Amino acid sequence: MSSWRVLGLISGTSMDGIDIAVAELSTSGDGTARLRPCGSTEVAYPAELRRRLLAALPPAHLDAREFCVLDTEVGRAFADAARHGIAEFGDVDLIASLGQTLYHWVEDGRARGTTQLGQPAWIAEATGLPVIADLRARDVAAGGHGAPLAGVLDALWLADRPGPSIALNIGGIANITVVGGPEPLAYDTGPGNALLDAAATRVTDGATASDVGGLIAADGRVHRRLLERLLADDYYRAEPPKSTGKEHFGADYLDSAVREVDISGPDLLATLTELTATTIADACHRHGPREVIASGGGVHNPTLMAALRDRLRDVALHVSDDLGLPAAGKEGYLTALLGWLTWNGLPGNVPGTTGADGPRLLGAITPGARPLRLPEPASEPVHRLRITHTTTPLEAE
């Protein structure tokens, strides 16, 4: 296979904007793929669109008109983001989009369906490039959870690390990928920033949508009784693979939890920070890791990272930048990788990480301005991923 420049697009469960990353991807034919980060950034959603997206989350009832409007407006926002990425980082060959998850239907511990907004036709029309989208549904149809798809990047990226190693992503929902055991394992551990964001909005009367830098939490004390109540949620004891989202850990969940609790804003944020750190650390300790490598928006919250470091005790905690993969752009690079795999006829899921019945080609392709010509499918699977722009101290260990 020749080298391909792929632009990845995704908006996470925080719904604060669209992550953009451009990667150059290639393979040498020995089962090793190479990813060269070419740049990443984020563009915010228009304020009114973000308000409507948040208002559409469960338990809201969404009619067909509003669903159509949101799918179109998110598609247009993603198209604008793609043009922005091309203008900033240069021309690309194709685009991959994970869209905006609106609802993840889990029942009796099994994913039954998943809905991502962001009609890819708008992206193809705006750029003239082929777009690979709807990347979760096939895994769900094959018995998987469709999440966390980060497992495919992490399993390849950490394949040669002395393990066990855990890749941690702290987005709205936190998830881990365990590499170095009998087979890769990945699952959502519970809330990352989702409840923290809901609480910050609540205690500031909407003045801020997040606890920037963990400053509010840093002024508070953990409310032990509330923390115990939150930790009693059955999700934490469910066996992996498992997945969750704001349909469970959302604003209504928080309102119910604090309904009869007299608590200050800083104490609420401190308690929720402890909840996130404790549930992540508990999940990590189950697998006896040598190291945890973190990425996602949560790594920019010093209060959360200090709590997590304390709970992990003697387990080394790094950020993904230490291994050459920019933490801020990791989900965008993941999306680019998923698109590249599909484009070259390679499966984009790891059954041990999603629970699917087997490896599957993911997504649907919307042609660009030219006739669609796919490359010859890869003749062998990919077993490892190298980040190629620099050699870091950790990579040299």
TrEMBL record:
Positions bound to ATP: 12-19
Superkingdom of this protein's organism: Bacteria
Catalysed conversion reaction: 1,6-anhydro-N-acetyl-beta-muramate + ATP + H2O = N-acetyl-D-muramate 6-phosphate + ADP + H(+)
Protein EC: 2.7.1.170
Pfam (any one): AnmK
Keyword Transit peptide: no
Gene Ontology biological process terms from the UniProt entry: 1,6-anhydro-N-acetyl-beta-muramic acid catabolic process; amino sugar metabolic process; peptidoglycan turnover
GO molecular function: ATP binding; kinase activity; phosphotransferase activity, alcohol group as acceptor
Xref: InterPro entries: Anhydro_N_Ac-Mur_kinase, ATPase_NBD
SUPFAM superfamilies: Actin-like ATPase domain
Keywords: ATP-binding, Carbohydrate metabolism, Kinase, Nucleotide-binding, Transferase
Gene3D superfamilies (alphabetical): 3.30.420.40
Record pathway: Amino-sugar metabolism; 1,6-anhydro-N-acetylmuramate degradation; Cell wall biogenesis; peptidoglycan recycling
PANTHER family given in the database record: ANHYDRO-N-ACETYLMURAMIC ACID KINASE
Role noted for this protein: Catalyzes the specific phosphorylation of 1,6-anhydro-N-acetylmuramic acid (anhMurNAc) with the simultaneous cleavage of the 1,6-anhydro ring, generating MurNAc-6-P. Is required for the utilization of anhMurNAc either imported from the medium or derived from its own cell wall murein, and thus plays a role in cell wall recycling.
The family this protein is said to belong to: Belongs to the anhydro-N-acetylmuramic acid kinase family.
Name of this protein: Anhydro-N-acetylmuramic acid kinase
Organism in which the protein naturally occurs: Saccharopolyspora gloriosae
